[in-house]
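Possible race condition, two jobs.
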Amino acid sequence: MKPIHTGNEFEKLNEIFQTISQFAFAFNSDVDSLLGDDCAIIDGAGQNIDLFASDLMAEGIHFSRLYYTPAEIGYKSISVNVSDIAAMGGMPRYVTIAIACPKDFDITNFYVGVKAACQEYNLRVAGGDLSSSENLFVSVAILGSSIGQPIKRSTATVNDHIFLTGPTGASAAGLELLQQDPSSSGPLQRSHKLPKARVDVAAVIARLPANSAIDVSDGLIGDLNHICTQSNLGAVIETMPAAEGATLEHCMYGGEDYEIIFTHPNPELVMESFSEQNISLPIVIGRFRETKGILYRNKPLVVKGYAHDL
């Protein structure tokens, strides 16, 4: 089979630039490209560029090319990073993308997915790197602007209620369906391959402000436990909002839903703030307690989530 990307690295980089050129300019300029030099020159344009995150996606661990198109991999690689910024009450600004791939991988189509994510999240591409590899690896770094004080995991209080921005479990349920039939499609499969970062709630939780927050990447219980551990608290869960088509196990432990868990002592204020912005109301799933551990319907839960075997 003829390789998809023949030619040298610089020809391919030029092709990539043509694909994403409209997202390669600073926010305050449509003349000076962010690409082409050893570093991007970023002007904050009045924004406080103070949040930084990075994420690595590896073939066989985070995705399989049996059921992901290159564009879907490109979109997801951006979306999962945007979610980290949103969980801290921030807005995404700039990304850099490093990709190492085999010759049969369609890099240009990958960047079609990146472009779609940039359009959706109002992002700019500030550079990256390209290399060959037997397996596919994608590393994205992201810069963002906090709207207020960045929301941490370690600042929940015992008086806080625990909120979830939407049901969980759809991604895990979709992954199971794709593993059974890589050609299958539907809302659950789409939730897994094309997750949506909850940037729509970032400003609301920042201005409340929420006392703590985290996105659901490793699983609802596992990620809630990160807040509990870092805030030195336990939790009592009263409801588990499973997505349609997902089991309770998917909901609790599945991961990659990218809803946001956040905490606040005043449910009425939270609901009012979401209503004012015409955003779907979050779900109150429980509250914190001083005693360690997580209870669900007065029974201790096994705390687990996705973790790499290193």
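Job #2 (started ~2 s after job #1):
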Amino acid sequence: MKNKNDIYVPDLVKTFQLPETSLTKHCLEVIADVLGAKKMTFDDDYDITILDNIVIKKYGEVLDFFNDEHSYGLKSSIETSSMTMNYGWSYGINGAKPYEQNEEDKCVLIDVEHLYASLMIKYGFLSRCVPTPAIFEEIYKRKKNFDKNGKDDQNAMSHRVVVNGTYGAMSINKDNPLYDMRQSNNIKVNAQLFMLDLIEKLEHSGELLHVNTDRLIYKVNDYSVFKNECEKWSERTKLNLKLDEISNFNQKGFFHYEFTKSDGTKIVKEIFKK
């Protein structure tokens, strides 16, 4: 069955000079071809590594959850000082609270730059089926350079598809040569813990309004302290953060919000949970 990303297959084949046989494959299979993945079989899906530079003190029950073998495949939630947050084995950390920005409120959007790809490169969580991980890192570097220079041609798009699609190729289909559920779980779990780590550090300088996998939105009380905590977290975790002051933030729920970025871009999310 075709999926929406299969429209990128011809460009991927051309950009990365793949054989014509790749044209008959799905997008995630072609990404495996780009990375030279060799199909392997593992039986260690939940034998994960929780990184030792994650520092969580207040919300230790989340660490306990992921360390408990009886939690495998499950989900849970936690009450923070601002909201209820959900976490688990099947998705990224998430939560939101109703909010309408007042004129005097300072709201800041935090994006972790390429969270999943960064964990693959900086912590060795790329699929073990890739014999030369440096190939992915090089594609990632070129993709960042394309973004920096505002390029949006076939070459740039093909690099974005590989970087953004590799995690899905690792975790969705067991027949994909990139499939490696242990590494997928390493990414998913450590990403949630790193985000909770940051949330814990920012509790005294801002009110958390929204969290979704690699994105946080805060009402900031003391921007100097807030920014300093972000910088310390980034230095410790080796993960880059982008901070942007937003305006006109209105949120009715996790699937219904809008705001305007500092460059004037308006973000509107209106997906209602059925």
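Residues 4-34+130-176 form one domain.
Logs attached separately.
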